Amino acid sequence: xxxxxxxxxxxxxxxxxxxxxxxxxxxxxxxxxxxxxxxxxxxxxxxxxxxxxxxxxxxxxxxxxxxxxxxxxxxxxxxxxxxxxxxxxxxxxxxxxxxxxxxxxxxxxxxxxxxxxxxxxxxxxxxxxxxxx
Length: 133
Hints:
The protein is mainly alpha-helical. Helices cover 35% and strands 8% of the residues. It contains 6 helices and 2 strands. It has helices spanning 2-6, 21-28, 57-60, 71-85, 105-112, 121-127, and strands spanning 10-14, 39-43. The protein has a two-stranded antiparallel ribbon. It is globular. The relative contact order is 0.14.
């Protein structure tokens, strides 16, 4: 991705490939012991893309041992900063949840994980010849 971006290409990883792994595998005619895990889209951007704000490293990177020191506070601050700089255009799963006046990254993740995704991925990988023991 760094090399592509150095040439002026934009890149976007697509993890949703795992949502339809068997169909993607059939489309690409993948052999046994090969399965699609992610896609990568390349193209010349029409405009300079906005880089999504990320969680602070203290939340995602733990050196030596896992620590939850000030984790809730750091995520709350991230929610606030992201809501100000990159508010969500729409709320996830509106039919299942009431509209939220202060929709945040945290609420988006709660909604995202409230419904199972890729429940059949393990079975699919086994069908490709892998044992997941």
